[in-house]
Amino acid sequence: MSLFCFYSSIYSQPIENKSKLSVLYVGGSANWENDAFKNEEDKKADIQRRTESFESMLIRYFTRVKAIDAKEYRQEMSNDYDVTVIDGTPKAIAESKETKDASGRTTEYIPASYLTEDFNRPMLFIGETGAKLGRSLGLKCNWYCLCLDANALNSRLEHEIFKGPFPVKITQEIKPTPPDAFHYEYFLGHKTPETIPMWRVQTKGYATDKGFRIGMVSQPWGFEDSPDAEYISSGVCQKTLDAVALGRHGNFFHWGFAASPEYMTLEGQTVLANAICYISKFNGKGVMAREYLGGRATREYLKERKYYATREAYNKSRESDLQFNTRMLELKKIAEEKKAKDEKLTRLEQSTLNYTTLPEKPFEDFLKTYQKEFYPRFGTNSEAYIKYYDENKNYFYSQDALYVISLDEDVKSLGIPYYDKRLLDKTIGMLEKGEDVEKAKRILARYTMVDFDTPAQWRNWYEKNKSRMFFTETGGYYFMINTYDKKIPGNDYHEKALKTNHPIKYW
Known about the structure:
Layout: H1 3-10, E1 19-27, H2 40-61, E2 62-69, E3 83-86, E4 97-100, E5 106-110, E6 123-126, H3 129-134, E7 145-148, E8 151-153, E9 173-176, H4 185-188, E10 195-200, E11 215-217, E12 229-235, E13 246-249, E14 252-255, H5 266-279, H6 299-307, H7 311-340, H8 347-352, H9 363-371, H10 375-378, H11 382-391, E15 396-398, E16 405-407, H12 409-414, H13 422-433, H14 437-447, H15 455-465, E17 469-472, E18 478-481, H16 493-500
Parallel strand pairs: 1-2, 1-3, 3-6, 6-14
Antiparallel strand pairs: 4-5, 7-11, 8-10, 8-12, 9-10, 12-13, 13-14, 15-16, 17-18
Helix pairs in contact: 1-2, 6-11, 13-14, 13-15
C-alpha cells in the first residue's frame, strides 16, 4: 500500500459535499525536529510523508488539490488557486540585509522577502511559516513564541471556522491551566483559573513526544487593534492564555499548530479545512495596518512596566533565575558526560557546555533593566513609577524601537488620549484658528500618514473619513482608514517613509 493510500484510509469517512475551492499546498518541512533524524535520508522521507499526509487530507475536503515543494513556489502560482497553504520556506525574492556600526551594533535590519506587499491572494500558514514569510510584510502573525503544543484553549467557538462549511463538534475537556500562564497574571487584572477547557488539535505534541515539531503563537496585544485582524484561538504554550494560535490578518490565516494531518485529530482536520474555506473569502482584501516592528510597545505594555517596578517582580525574577541556573547546570553535566563518552549531543546539550550561572542582580540593576529611560528620574521608588504610569496612561506613544515608550507632552497638554480621534479634530481646529500651530503639526505628523498644505485640506480629509477611522498601536501609532481603496490617503506606510525621510524599521 502506498503512503498516499495509507493516509487516505486513516480517516475514511467520506465528505459528502466537497468544497469546490482549489488548494495549492506548498510543503518542504518535516514532522520532527532535526535531532530526531539519524540521517538526511530519514528526514527527506519524513518530509515526503508529511506532504502526502496533507495532500490526502486536502483531497478529502476539496475538489482540486496540488502539492509542490517550497523550492518550486513562486507567488504568481497562487493566482491559479483559491487558497495557498504554506508549510515550507520558499526561495526568497530578496535576501535579508543587516547594517552594523563600528562597535558591531545593528543599526538597520531588513528581513528577507518571500512575497511582495501587494500580494492579496488567500494564504494559510502552518506553524512558524507565517512569521518567516510575514516578517517583511508587517503581518501580525509574528514570532511571539515557538512553544505551541497539541491542545487549543480560549477558542471563540462561535467563530465561523467552528461552524462549517464542514460540520464539526468540538469536544472540550477541563484540564489544568498551563503553568506558564500564571507568570502573566499581572496582565489580566484577575486571578488565573486553575483549570481551563481545551480541545485536542493534535494527537502528538512536543511536550509529550520528544523531538516532535513545535507550533508557534503570535503576540496577542494589539492583534485586534485594526479591522483587518482577528483572534480566533489560543493554545497550550509558555505564554499568555490569549497568545494567538489561530488568527487572521488580512488575506493571511495563521494556523500555529505544526502537526501534519497524520498527527491531527479529526476535529483538528475539519477545523483546518474550514479555516481554508474561511480565508478564501478574503481574496483581494490585502492588509491595512502593518506591524513592521514586532516589539513595539502598546497599552498592555504599561501593565508590564508597572509590575516590573515592584519588589514582588524582582523577587520572582531572582527565583526564576535560580531555577534556570539549576536546570542549565544539570543539563551541562549531562552534556559533559555524553561528550566524555563521545556520544552525539543535541543542539540544546551542545549549547549548555559553555553555560555560566546567571549573576544575582541587586534591585537597582533590575529596575535599570526594566524601567530604562525612567530610572534616572525615579530610582528605586516603586510607587513613583506606578503613579507616573497611571497618571499618564493615555499619553504615551512608542517610537520605532523595541519596547521604548515616551510621554507625549503635546498630547498631554490637550488632555485627549492619543488613540481618540477627537485629537485630530482638535489639532485641525488649532490649525484653522492659528493656535499653537507647531504643536498641532507635530501631533498630526506623529499620528497620521498624511501631510496636507492647508487646514482646509486637513479638515476635508478628516470629515470624509472620520466615520471609518481606527487607531492602531501595533501598526505604528497611526490613525488609519478602514478601506482597501489605495486612492484614499491615510494608509500608505511607504509614502510616509518617503515624505519624512525615515525608512521603515523592522525587528
